[in-house]
Design brief:
Layout: H1 2-14, H2 18-29, E1 33-40, E2 46-51, E3 58-65, E4 71-79, H3 85-96, E5 116-118, H4 119-131, E6 135-142, E7 150-154, H5 165-173, E8 177-181, E9 186-194, E10 200-209, H6 215-230, H7 236-239, E11 242-244
Antiparallel strand pairs: 1-2, 1-4, 3-4, 5-11, 6-7, 6-10, 8-9, 9-10
Length: about 250
């Protein structure tokens, strides 16, 4: 809790929040956009934006939700040409898949000043989001060279956030932790992050929407993600192409 409070204070002073970074990445994915913003509904309230509000640009507004499908606010997109409904819907979905709660939007990005981000890890996170429609959150907890264990890639920011006791236990004992959260809507599953040789190189934190099949389906999905990643990771060095965030 103290770490989250300190992170929020840092975001307030730096102005570089995860919400702003997320929208900037959307502008990079969709070059037809000149500006994007999110206004959160009450009681969260908050405004995030990226790009340039060019005079005369066309604007479309639509509802945006979190990873569990709950409306969180209004997304405004500006472009030089009209956006097709499929385009605006895709952008809203991409944002939804990267916001599991409104709280993360106000957090700093990166989460700590000495954070390390793995470009290879980011690409793997994006791949798993494409492959797993019920995946809500995914994060790699890995120790960069000369650093303590921290998040190096995720779909919800917090890059650089230190490992907690659960993360360290999963890594030390190769155990699997499960917990139902969000009033029975989400299943958290944390597993060892394995390389191709089956060696534990970190912790893999995932969560899934709980459907009619219950916990068993979410657990099978988590194991599938674990195996999928393992086949793509030769070792710690394959994730250790760090981009220094400061």
């Amino acid at each position: 809790m103290l770490a989250l409070m300190a992170a929020a204070a840092a975001a307030a002073t730096s102005g570089q929040t995860y919400g702003n970074s997320l929208l900037a990445r959307e502008l990079g994915r969709h070059r037809q956009l000149s500006h994007a913003s999110i206004d959160l509904d009450a009681p969260s309230a908050g405004h995030f934006e990226a790009g340039t509000a060019i005079a005369g640009a066309l604007e479309i507004k639509l509802a945006v939700a979190d990873g569990l499908g709950q409306r969180i606010g209004t997304l405004a997109l500006r472009s030089a040409r009209p956006l097709r409904p499929s385009e605006s819907a895709q952008i809203a979905t991409e944002i939804t898949r990267r916001v599991y709660s409104t709280a993360v939007l106000s957090e700093p990005d990166p989460f700590t000043v000495d954070a390390f981000r793995s470009a290879r890890g980011d690409r793997l996170v994006e791949r798993e989001l494409d492959r797993e429609p019920t995946l809500v959150t995914i994060a790699f907890h890995v120790a960069p060279p000369g650093r303590d264990n921290q998040i190096i890639a995720s779909n919800f920011g917090r890059i650089g956030k230190a490992a907690d006791d659960d993360d360290r236990r999963v890594i030390a004992t190769s155990s699997v932790l499960q917990e139902v959260t969000n009033g029975g809507k989400r299943l958290d599953v944390e597993l060892p992050l394995l390389d191709r040789a089956g060696r534990t190189i970190g912790a893999l934190r995932t969560s899934f929407i709980l459907g009619p099949s219950g916990r068993s389906a979410g657990y099978r999905s988590a194991v599938r993600v674990q195996h999928d990643l393992s086949s793509s990771v030769r070792g710690l060095d394959s994730l250790a192409h760090w981009t220094r965030n400061s």
